Each structure stands twice: as structure tokens, then as C-alpha cells.
Amino acid sequence: MENFERKTSPKNGIDTENWFIESYRRYKGHPIRILIALYKGNYHKFVMAVICFFIKHACVWVLPIITANIINDVTQKNPDTVRNIWISAALEIGLIALNIPMNYLYTSYKSLATRYAETGLRKALIRKLQQLSIAYHVETQSGRLQSKIMRDVEAVETLSTQMFLSILNIALNIGVALVVTASKSKIVFVFFLLTTPVAAITMVSFRSVMKKRNTEFRKEMEETSARVMEMVELVPVTRAHALEDEEVHKMSGQLFTVAEKGYKLDLVQALFGSVGWAVFQVFQVVCLAFTGYLALRGRIMAGDITLYQSYFATVVNQVSAIVTLLPTIAKGIESVNSIGEVLLSEDVEQNEGKKQLEDVTGIFDFEDVSFHYKNSDKPVLNHLNLHVKQGETIALVGESGAGKSTVLNLVIGFHLADGGKVLLDGNDMRKIDLRTYRKHLAVVPQTSILFSGTIRENITYGNEHVSDEELERVIKAANLTDLMESLPNGVDTMVGEHGGKLSGGQRQRIAIARALIRDPEVIVLDEATSALDSISEKLIQEALENLTKGRTTFIVAHRLSTIRDADKIAVLADGHCVEYGTFEELMARKGEFYRMKMIQS
Q1: Do 518 and 481 form a contact (C-beta atoms < 8 A)?
Q2: Domain ranges within the chain, ordered by starting residue
Q3: How far apart are CA 101 and CA 20, in angstroms?
Q4: Of 3, 31, 119, 438, which is most buried by a Cβ count within 10 Å?
Q5: How many helices and strands (H and E) does the chain possess?
């Protein structure tokens, strides 16, 4: 893999991912110029591919000349005919033999260049997705993004091949045919040129409708990809409620919509191709009649009819190939624009040039903080004030929509305050490099997120050089010891897709272990014990009390019994902190917290 990466990388040390994004910005609205820019540093590979192509195709271009010469020698009874036949045969065989090594080199140079662009585009998309805001990911279906990374990039790679190599291919074939024809007969050469305007008119007449159909089909494919992913994730829910038929019916409607768009696209492409083919076949018949007439009048030799017919067939086939390529080119250009929707998005987390944090103590101040989401005018947080000391554990409680998760997102830095300030150790969160802060942060979300791999890999994610002793300590603290002992491969057991081979409680405890192994200064626990049974929950609560000691911890919990030992409890309502204090203090006030606790009792 390293050898292939070295071969495909540009020799001038271009930062591929950033260059691709910059190319989209610089040539926005000009997909062909973007495509050309993607190959900067690899143009020499295309030059070598063209040279190898020229050599490997020489046998095809020379054969009509040899054939015409032999026919002319035979018909004119040339005394050197036998010698000329042997020389011509030896020359053609030699050119044919060259085809094999030249084809290998041609494919090698072409593939190295196109695979470089394909991989670079995917890397650029992946890097951009890591930079885009959490709000962007919430609003964009993951299936659409997957379609861009896989389907659209593949279409761009195909477009690259067609634009840089197939079209060069076509140009060389037409060029050789026209040069040889012009050198032998100006009349026939002029006749050949008359086909060009017809080709241009045919292509232009279909361009706008082709673009429209490709755009419609691409958007429906993205929508289908997104819905298929949702359907797969919902299979357990669908099966549990006997909704299989409803889900099939719903997906069938989407699939028929895609089929309809694809059908319309197929019809346009078929009509486009057949019209072009028919026009050029008619011209080829006319060429045969025209050159036969010229031979009859003595303007050209009889053998030259074969030469001109072969070269005219080459011109016709190559122009027809351009017509055939147009749907692929239109699809590729649409995919270039589709990828640009991600790469040109400005909804990114800006960290460059901001203050970098070496150490974090974990003191937070919410000063008159207000926040609302883009799709809503109603503020989620409304002039919230809160002070959290270093090493303090603060629990956030309140009804749904009170702003608890929003406070956690502000603590993590997923969102920034619209009004007021969120201060970390006296630093405005808007003015710090959040990446340096998050190295001191650990998060356990409400829904455990595991990837396909081993338990060890999931726990040590981002901390690969963890000692066995440290891993064992964290496993014990997260109450995973019994689970590890019960599994045949222990920590090296595969968890399956999304941790599907484990129970909900086991997945959550692994997520807790992943957070704990980071040894963070700030911990965010969003309903971290919600998926645990009562016995495991008690053991986890004891472990968390020991491991959060000396670390600033934010907890969101709906079961109020789990936050009895928190240093402070903040009760949120309508974006305000309406009550603040210890568990005992809030119970003694018999206010909002007391009312909530009594409802759960």
C-alpha cells in the first residue's frame, strides 16, 4: 500500500486534500477546470499515457495504408509487389508486437493518475466532513453523504478517464485519419470535414435536456441511499411492530420514483445515441459512393477507396464515440458539482489562528448565555447564568426541551453561544482552538456509539498505546470484568456492527470505559447509566464517583436518584436555571426539583 501511495502521489509535494478544496473554490461553477486542477502534479502521467497510446495504436492506423498500397500494387502489376508485401507484413507484425508492452504502460500511467484523483477526492471529502459543524451533520442525511463519497467520486473518476484519455484517444484517431487523407486527396478531405458541423449540432441539441435528467436522477439516488440506510437501522423496530409490509410499501414508492427518473434518462441517452449513429452511418454510405465515383473518374486509385473508407469509418466512429460519451460526461459533471456541495460548504468549525490550550483546569462560567437553533426562532437558552468550579460535579435536570443537552453541546463546543459568553478557565469558548481543549475532554453520549472492531479497539479509540494494566483498571472501573471473563477472546472479542453482538448495558459500559481511559479533566455524561440494569448501575455509580473525583463533570440524568451525590444540581426550565444547589438543599426547598422527585418516587 505504501508503494502504491508513493507512486500515485504528486512529485511536487502538493497537499492533496487542501488543494482539491482550493480548486473547487477557485474554479467554482466551472467543473471542467476543477477536474483539470485535480490532476496538478500528475500531468506528466497523462502525457506518458498519450505517448504509449499513440505507439500501441500505430498498427491500426498503418493497416489501411498498407492495405491500399498492396491493392494498388496488385491492380497495377508492380514488379516489386511480393517484396512490398513482405516488408509491409513485417512492419505491421512489429507494430502489433509493440501493442502489448505499450498497452501495459498506457494503462499503468492512466490508472495511477485517475486513482490518485479518486483517492484524493474521497480523502478531501472525509476531511471536510470532519471539519463541518455538528449542526450540518444533524441536518444532512448520512446516506446522501455516503452517496457523494462513493457514487459521485466514482463518476468523477470515470469522467476523468473519458475527458483526458478517451477524448485524447478520439482526437488522435481523427487527427491521423485527416492528416493522411489531406496528404492524398484534398477533395476527400473536404468531404470528411463536412461531418463535423453535423456532429456539433447533434451534441448541442441534446445537452440541456441531458443535464436536467442527470440532475434529477442524481438527487433521487441520494434520497434513496439515505432512506435505505434509515430502513436498515429501523429493521428491529419494524420487525418488533410487524410493520414489514408498510416499510416495503414506503420503499417501493421511492424505488419506483428512482426507476422513473432513470427510465427518462435512459430514453434521452438512447435517442441521443441512435440519432448520432444513424446520421453518421448515412454519411459513411455517401462516402463509399463518393470515393467510388472519384476512382471511376480516375481522380483516385482503386485501392484508395479502401483507405478512405477505413479512415472515414474511423472519423465516423470517433465522432459517434463523442456522442456516446456525452451522457457519461454529463453525469460526471453533475457529480463534480455534487461533491462541491460538501467541499464548498462554509458551515465549518473555525479553529485556525485561535488560542491553543496546553492545560485545562475545568472552570466554567455561563454568563447571560442565549442560544437558539437555526430552524427555530424560540431560544433554547435564555440568559442562562451558571458557575462551575474546578473538579465539581454538576447535574442538569429538567423537562424535555428545557435546554439540558444544549448546555452539554456548549460545554463540548459543538455549539457556540448566540448571546453572552461561555468561559473555560476564563477563556471565551469562541476564541480558543476547540481541538486543543477536547484533548482534555471525555464524552459518554446517551446512545452508545461503537464501531465494528474488538472491545479493546473501541475502548482505546484514539489512545492506542495504552498499557494492559491501565486497560484492566478501566475495565474494572466500568464494571466490565465479568463480561471480559465470560467472552472466549476477552477484550479481543469483535463487537459487530454498531456493537450489535452486545447488550445495551454492555455497549454503554464500553463507552464509559472509552471515556475514562482518556484520563480527562472534563467529563460529559449524557444519561450515561440509562441503559444499565439496577445492579450494574449501582456499581457504575460507585466507579464514577471515584473516577470523577478532581475532574469537572457535567451529568444529564432523567432518573433523579442517580445524581444524589452530585456537588450541585441545576434545574433548567424555559432556558433558565430556576434552582441551584445540592440534592438535600433542593429537596428542602420543596420547589421544582422536589416536585419532579416526587413524581418519580
Answers
A1: no
A2: 7-343, 364-600
A3: 33
A4: 31
A5: 24, 10
| 1, amino acid identity | M
Grid cell digits, residue 18: 487542501
Tell me the average confidence (pLDDT) per consecutive run of 10 residues in the chain, 601 residues long: 56 65 82 82 83 84 80 78 85 88 89 82 84 77 79 84 75 81 81 68 66 78 78 72 76 83 82 73 77 79 77 75 74 85 83 89 93 82 91 89 89 90 93 90 79 84 82 83 84 76 77 84 78 61 68 84 84 89 90 84 64
Residue linked to cell 484517444: 169
**Superfamily of the domain at 7-343:** ABC transporter type 1, transmembrane domain (1.20.1560.10)
Please provide residue 444's backbone torsions phi and psi, each rounded to the nearest 5 degrees: -120, 105
All cell numbers assigned to 335: 457529480
Q: 546, 512 in Cβ contact below 8 A?
A: no
What is the full DSSP assignment across 107-167? HHHHHHHHHHHHHHHHHHHHHHHHHB-HHHHHHS-HHHHHHIIIIIHHHHHHHHIIIIIIH
DSSP 432: B
Question: What DSSP character marks residue 578?
Answer: E
What CATH topology corresponds to 364-600?
Answer: Rossmann fold (3.40.50)
The answer to whether the pTM exceeds 0.85 is no
The answer to whether the beta carbons of residues 440 and 454 sit under 8 Å apart is no
The CA distance from 510 to 11, in Å, is 44
d(CA 195, CA 283): 8
